[in-house]
Amino acid sequence: MVQTALASEAEAAELARGIVQARLGACVQLQAIRSFYVWQGQAHDAPEWLLSIKTRGALYPALEAYIREHHPYETPEIVQLPITAGSAAYLAWLDENTD
Fold first, then answer.
1. DSSP string, 6-70
2. Most buried one in 6, 14, 65, 96, CB count within 10 A?
3. Is 2-96 a domain of CATH 3.40.640.10?
């Protein structure tokens, strides 16, 4: 699973659609979140939209490149979280819906 965040729901939905259409993720879930962070020396408290991208580990380099190309942030969050277990049927579906 890969996560990234965007400032607006519209931007998040556009990126999610593109990822699924490119078959870099089988499913992308969006969640409204509130982020606290320091950027360029200033503290921020901002609403964001978190994308949880279900994908295969082998697709991470292509997915990271896609996110970098289509993400509006100068330094977007792009982190990979390992899926250590899951239902065999779901994981098979994930494999079938990614390239």
1. ESSHHHHHHHHHHHHHTTS-SEEEEEEEEEEEEETTEEEEEEEEEEEEE--GGGHHHHHHHHHHH
2. 6
3. no
